[in-house]
Design a protein that fits this description.
Layout (H helix, E strand, L loop, with lengths): L1 H8 L4 E5 L12 E4 L2 E5 L7 H13 L4 H11 L5 H21 L3 H19 L11 H11 L15 E3 L10
Parallel strand pairs: 1-3
Antiparallel strand pairs: 2-3, 2-4
Helix pairs in contact: 2-4, 3-4, 4-6
């Protein structure tokens, strides 16, 4: 259900699923992204790995956009490097997506939709500044969940793959 939803919302992202996925050093990883490709391992991935890797593509495409930079800055203020802060934002979005898709309570869905709708209108018509958004990471995560780009899409130009570590036991015997 999650993968189908992601593919429908982000058809420009290529999905690659392998039994085992390894990084450049040969270490098993749960998932990775590069440019407009999101990849993960059938054996090492967790419930939030697919949205996590799609979120890497999303955040990298929007790099430099003020709302993305503001969200990264919020995580950086917690004593993180910019790279670690961006990873924390992606992790947040992946977990948000995985949890949100499971929430079937109409009341919760309406509340989230209304809050997002009002915030989007206020931002669009200049009644609210970006700095005034209560929870920018949550706002971005909901936009991602809805399949909407939050700013000017910067393109898929990332050259360095980003890897999500796997908690699965690693067998390097061959």
């Amino acid at each position: 259900k999650i993968i189908t939803s992601l593919k429908e919302k982000y058809p420009e992202v290529e999905t690659v699923v392998r039994n085992v996925l390894r990084d450049e050093a040969g270490t098993k990883v749960a998932g990775m992204s590069l440019g407009a490709v999101a990849a993960w391992s059938r054996t090492g991935a967790t419930f939030d790995t697919a949205p996590h890797e799609y979120a890497h593509v999303y955040i990298n495409a929007l790099e430099g956009d003020p709302i993305i930079e503001q969200a990264i800055k919020q995580f950086t203020e917690k004593g993180k490097t910019r790279k670690d802060a961006a990873e924390d934002l992606v992790q947040y979005i992946g977990e948000y997506y995985a949890n949100r898709i499971q929430d079937k309570k109409l009341k919760n869905r309406i509340r989230i939709w209304w809050k997002q709708f009002v915030t989007r209108l206020k931002l669009r018509f200049g009644k609210m500044k970006l700095e005034d958004v209560d929870d920018i990471p949550q706002f971005i995560a909901e936009e991602f969940y809805q399949g909407r780009w939050v700013g000017e899409m910067g393109g898929f130009t990332e050259k360095t793959p980003r890897f999500q570590e796997s908690d699965a036991p690693v067998d390097n015997s061959g």
